Amino acid sequence: MTTKTMYVAAAAALLYAARRYYRNWGTTKEESVTYLPGDELLDQPAIRTTEAVWINAPASAVWPWLVQMGQDRGGLYSYETLENFVGLNYHNADRIHPEWQRLAPGDRVRLVPRGWMGLRNGFNLTVAEVIEQQAVMLCAGPPTHPMDAVWSFHVIPYWEDRCRLLVRSRTRRRHWGDAVAIECVAPAMALVTRGMLRGIKRRAEGRLNDVELPVGLGAEGESPTGDAHGANANEMLLDGSRPGK
To answer: Where do the domains of the chain lie, and which CATH numbers do they carry?
Structure first.
């Protein structure tokens, strides 16, 4: 085996190990495979991931933060310093803006500003569907995006004062090289998504001054596999018991 082949094999092994860690962070097995609104917009995806977090607030407290997302609106509530280090010019909102509370099919959610890295029009996702107080489905595809993709956000109430926030991404490859490209950018996307989930959680719970946890830990002691406070999140969802606050 040549040295080059060994490097390729090692890189592939590292990517596979990382993939097992970052995919489906915070979800139960049922959540990662269950049908969610928006799945019908893209069949047979090459890559599908689902990430989730418990939020100690009613679904109605989470929804306003979702509908005002966007680089030129409320931001993504993720790692603002890191995003601005690469020139994305994000300013994450710390309050609800009434002027950004309308989101309808056909609207655009901007992720990248105009002119960034030579992108004349930046990069937007189109709002495909909005289910009021429940879900937002965003989509992209040629010619503005090289691959067909759907990014959906789902607020699922559990009891009157607690809910789950799920983020699902589905991407379909058009060429064999697309799968490699998707896998290469997936860790960065997972980092942003995880930061966004935590950011929305803190805002909805009114805990903006809390110190951000290390990337390897889930919010409020959840493990990357979805366990909350040392208990199995899957069992909690099935038997209806309340995770500790």
So the answer is: 3-239 (3.30.530.20)
Measured in whole angstroms, the distance separating CA 115 from the mean position of its chain's CA atoms is 24
Query: Lowest mean pLDDT: which of 10-14, 99-103, 138-142, 224-228?
Result: 224-228
Strands (E), 62-122: 108-112
Neighbours of 108 (CB within 10 A): 15
Distance CA 112, CA 131 (A): 25
What are φ and ψ of residue 149, in 5° steps? -150, 150
φ, ψ (nearest 5 deg) of residue 191:
-65, -45
Here the tokens at position 233 are: 């999140």
pLDDT digits (tens, 9 = 90+) for 177-234: 565 666 666 666 778 888 999 999 999 998 766 545 444 434 343 433 343 333 334 4
> Encoding tokens for residue 103?
């989101």
d(CA 166, CA 37): 11
Q: What is the distance between the alpha carbons of residues 31 and 51, in angstroms, rounded to a whole number? A: 9
Q: What's 138's DSSP letter?
A: E
Burial class (CB in 10 A: 0-12, 13-18, 19+), 185: exposed
Q: Could you tell me the pTM of the whole model?
A: 0.76
